[in-house]
Amino acid sequence: MEPVDYIVLALYFCTLLVIAVYANKKQKTTEDYYVGGRGVGTLPLAALWMSSWVGGAAIMGTAEKSFEIGISSLWYPLSMFSGFIFFALIFAGRIKLLGDRHRHITYPDLIEQRYDTKVRLVSTVTTILAYVGYTASQLLSAAHIITSITGIELGYSFIVATAVTVIYTSLGGFFAVEKTDRFQTLLVIVGVSAVATPLTWNALGDASRLGAELPADFFQFGSWGWGAIVAMFISMVLTFFTSMDSYTRCFAARSVRSARNGTLLAALIVLCLSVSICFLGMSARILIPDGTDGSSTLIRLIMYVFPAGVKGLMLVTILSAIMSTADTCILCASANLTRDVYQRFVNPDAPQARVMRISICSSILVGVVGALVGWYSKSIINLLIMTFTINSAGLFLPTLGVFFWKRASSRAAFWSMSVSLVTVIAWYLGRGAFPDNALFAIDPVWPGLLASALLFFPLSLAAPGYREAEQSV
Question: Of 404, 403, 397, 375, which Cα lies nearest the Cα of 459?
C-alpha cells in the first residue's frame, strides 16, 4: 500500500477513538451502556441492524462463497433479508412494548419474565456461546485483512484485531456504537456499491467475461447444495427471533414504529449490497485466477486492482463493517455476563460503578475468547452458520411460546432448550470425529429442532398448569 492508504486508515481509527472517548462520558448506567437510554430513531436503528448483521464476516464471507460457487452464495444474504422482514412484521413491535413495560435489557430478561430462572440460565449460556462465535467470525475477518496488508502471521493479527476492537467497545459502550454505526453504514454502502463495484466493472472491461470464463454452475442458484441452502435459510431466519441483538435493538428503539421501520429499512439495504458483493467475488475469480484463498478474496481484489488511496478507503470500509459488528457482539455477550449472571445471581445490589467495571471486564473476556475460537475455525461462513444453528435450534420454539402460546410451560422450555443445545453441539463434534458417517452428514439444525419440538410440545401439553403469557402485546 501507498502512504496515503495508511493515512486513511490512521484517520479512521483516530475518529473512532475520539467518538468512544466522548461517548464514555455520557453513559451513567447499564441501561445507557447496553440500550442507549431507549431513544433511538428509525435511521440510526437501521444502521444498528446493519452493524449487527452486515459485518466484515458477512461481506468477506459472501465474497468468499461467490468466488467459490457463484450466484448461489446469494442465498446467505437472501436468508438475512427474509429474517429482517419476518422479524419486523411479527416480533419487533411486541418486543418494544414488553421491553418498555418491564425495563428489559437482554433476551434472557424476557425469557425469565415468561418462564423461570432455570430457563433464563439455559438461554444465557446459549446466547453467550453464540455471541462468542459471532465475535470470533468478526475477529477472523479482521485478522485476514491485517495479514494480507502487513504479511505478519495470522496469530499476531488476531492479537491486534482483538486489542483494537475490545478497547474501543469497552470504552464507548452503546452510545459510541450508535454514533459510529451511522457513519460506518454509510461508508459500507458507498464503498461497496459506489466505489468497488464500478472499479471492478472497469477492470473486467466487459461484463460478459463472467459468463464466458466462469464455470456454468456458477450461474445456478442451487450449486451450494439444496440441503445446505435450506438448513442455512432456516438457521438464519430463526436466529433473528432468538439473537439477543435483535432484542436490544428493539429495546433501544424510540417507539414501536421506529423498531419496525428501522428493521425493514435494514432489509432493503442488505438486498442492495448483496448483489454488489456477489459481483465482486465472482469478478475476483477472473481478475485473480491464481488459486487465491477464498477467505481473502476481497482483500486480494483490493490490493491488486484498486488504485492508491482507494485501497485505503476500501480497507477502511471492510474494517468499519468488522468493527461495527464486533462491538455489537461483544456488548451482547458482555450484557449476558454482567446482567444475566453477575447482577442476577452474584451481586444483585451492586452499585452502578461496580457494574460498569464488570461490564468492561466482561467485554475484554469475550474478545479474548472470541479470538481463540476464531483461531481454531478458519472458515468465516461455516463459523457463522454454526453459531446461527446453536442460537436458533433450541431457543426458537420457547421464544414463540412467550408471545403466542399460553400453554407453554417453564419445564418444557428448560428441557427443550437444554437437550437441543447439547444435540447441536454433539452433532458438530460428531462431524469432526466421524466425517464419513452418513448420520452426521445431516445438518445439525434438523436434529436440534427435532429434539426441541419433541420435548417442548408434549411437556407443555402434559403440564398440570401454566403461567399466562402476555396476550395483550
Answer: 397
119 and 410 Cβ atoms separated by less than 8 Å:
yes
Neighbouring C-alpha atoms within 13 Å toward the C-beta of 401:
32
| Residue at grid coordinates 483494537 | 164
User: What domains can be seen in the chain, in order of their start residue?
Assistant: 3-391 (1.20.1730.10), 393-473 (no CATH)
Contact in structure between 385 and 444 (CB atoms under 8 Å):
no
CA 245 to chain centre: 8
**How much is the pLDDT for 378?**
60
The pLDDT of residue 295: 61
Q: What percent of the chain has pLDDT over 90?
A: 40
Write out residues in the chain with pLDDT < 70, as ranges: 1, 5, 55-57, 148-150, 289, 291-295, 377-385, 465-473
Q: End-to-end distance of the chain based on CA atoms, in angstroms?
A: 55
- 458: Cβ contacts below 8 Å, ≥ 6 apart: 412
The three cell numbers locating residue 246:
435483535
Which pLDDT tens digit goes with each residue over 141-166?
777 777 766 677 877 877 877 887 88
Whole-model pTM over 0.70? yes
How many other CB atoms are there within 10 angstroms of residue 228's CB atom? 14
Query: What is the rounded CA–CA span in Å between residue 327 and residue 366?
Result: 11
Tell me how far apart the alpha carbons of residues 429 and 445 are, in angstroms, rounded to a whole number.
Answer: 14
Q: What is the pLDDT of residue 1?
A: 62
pLDDT of residue 383: 64
Strand partners, 8: none
- 383 Cβ contact partners less than 8 Å away, ≥ 6 residues apart: 57, 133, 136, 137, 140, 373, 374, 377
Cβ–Cβ < 8 Å for 38, 186? no
Number of Cα atoms under 13 Å in the Cβ half of residue 391: 30
Residue by residue, DSSP assigns 31-98 as HHHHHGGG-B-HHHHHHHHHHHHSSHHHHHHHHHHHHHHGGGGGHHHHHHHHHHHHHHHHTHHHHHHH
**87-118: b (≥16 Cβ within 10 Å) or e:** bbeebbbbbbbbbeeeebbbbbbbbbbbbbeb
Provide the H-helix boundaries in 217-255: 226-242, 244-252
Q: How many residues in total does the chain contain?
A: 473
Q: State the Cα–Cα distance between residues 275 and 278, nearest whole angstrom.
A: 5
Cα dihedral 15/105/356/139 (nearest 10): -50
Nearest to 30 by CA among 339, 337, 324: 339
Residue type at position 89: L
